[in-house]
Amino acid sequence: MTSYYPPISYNVPPSEDGWLLKTILQKRMDVSRKLLSRLKMTDLGITLNGERVYISVKVSSGDLVQIRMEEETSEDILPQPIPFEILYEDGHLLVVNKAAGMIVHPTHGHYTETLANGVVHYWAEKGERVRFRPVHRLDRETSGVLVIAKNPYSHQHISEQMIAGTVDKRYAACVHGVPAPRSGDIDGPIDRDPLEPHRRIVTPDGYPSLTRYEVKEVYGRAASLVELKLESGRTHQIRVHMSSIGCPLIGDGMYRHPLYGRLPEGVQLGTELSQPSGAQLEEKKREAGLVPPYGETQEAKLSPAEAAQLTQIAELDASIPRQALHAVRLSFRHPVTHDDLVFEAPLPPDMVLLQEKLRQSAIR
C-alpha cells in the first residue's frame, strides 16, 4: 500500500469558479511540470473533494484541491547517530545550524560522518520516511544556517526562490585587511581554474557572480569582520571574491593571501624571509636553472616590511583551523504556509575566539 505525506490543500475561491484543475495546480498551487507528472502517476496524487480526477476537469467555488506526494527514503545513505543543531522543523522543512568540518552530503571517499547520515538517522528514530534533500550547500569548513526540504514540493519552491533571488543569504567572515571602500559590490564572473580544477577563479569568461559586502568591525589594519550577502550561488563564491580584492578569509588554506606566493622556495615562516634560503638549497636551485649563476646577486622576493606582514598573516591563519566563514542568516518564504521565515545562527566558538584575539591585537 502506498504511503503519502500529509496533503497540501487549496480551497477554490469564487473568483476562480470554472477554472481548469490543471490551471489551479500550476498557477495557484505552483506545482511544477515535473512534479505534476509524478502526481498524476499515483492514486491519490491529485484529488478534488477527495476524489481522483483528471486535471482537465473544471473546478467550482468552494472545491477542495489536494496533492499528495509518496513517502520516500534515502536508501543510499547510512543512518548514523551524529549530533546536529536544529533551528526549525515542520512537516515540510528542516533548518539546521551546520557545524564546521561537517560535509553536507556523502561524496566519493566520504560516505559516512556527514550531515546527511545524521539527519537520516534522526528521522528514522522519529519513525519518519523522508528523503534527504538539501536545498543548498555549505562548504565542509563553513558553518551556519542550512535548509533541507522534506518533500519534492518544498524543494522545488525554495529552489525557485533562490533562482529568483528572493532568498536572503547572509554570511559573516573574518578577513585579512580592510576592504576599500567599507561597503560595496564584488561583481566578478567565476569559473574553474583550468590549472587546478578543484579551485575557482574570477575570469571574464566565467559565470556571472555578485557578492555584496559591508565591513562591520575593523581590527587595526590587519583584519576586519565583514557581512556578506550572496546574490548568486557559485562554488566558493565568497572565498574567491574576497581573495580577488586582496582580503582573503582568515584560515583559508586554498585561497590564501598573495604574499604566500612570494615566499622564496624552501623558506619557512619564522626565518629571515628576505635572506637566501641556504647554500644547500641555492645549489639545488642553481642546478635546476632557477637562480642566476654563482656570483650574481638574487633579488629578494620579500622586503622586510612584507616579511613582517606575512608573518602576521600566517599567525592569524594558524588561529583558526578552517576558513573563518559562517552562514549567519537565511530568510525565505515558507513553501506551503507562505509565511516569511528568518533563521539566524550566532558566530560559533572558534570565530568568537578569533574575534577576541583580533580585538586584543588591535588594541596593542
Automatic annotation (TrEMBL):
Chaperone listed as a keyword: no
InterPro entries, alphabetized: PsdUridine_synth_cat_dom_sf (IPR020103), PsdUridine_synth_RluA-like_CS (IPR006224), PsdUridine_synth_RluC/D (IPR006225), PsdUridine_synth_RsuA/RluA (IPR006145), RluA_PseudoU_synthase (IPR050188)
Domain Pseudouridine synthase RsuA/RluA-like: 92-244
Keyword annotations of the record: Isomerase, RNA-binding
PANTHER family hit by this protein: MITOCHONDRIAL RNA PSEUDOURIDINE SYNTHASE, RIBOSOMAL LARGE SUBUNIT PSEUDOURIDINE SYNTHASE D
Function (record text): Responsible for synthesis of pseudouridine from uracil.
Protein name: Pseudouridine synthase
Lineage: Bacteria, Bacillati, Bacillota, Bacilli, Bacillales
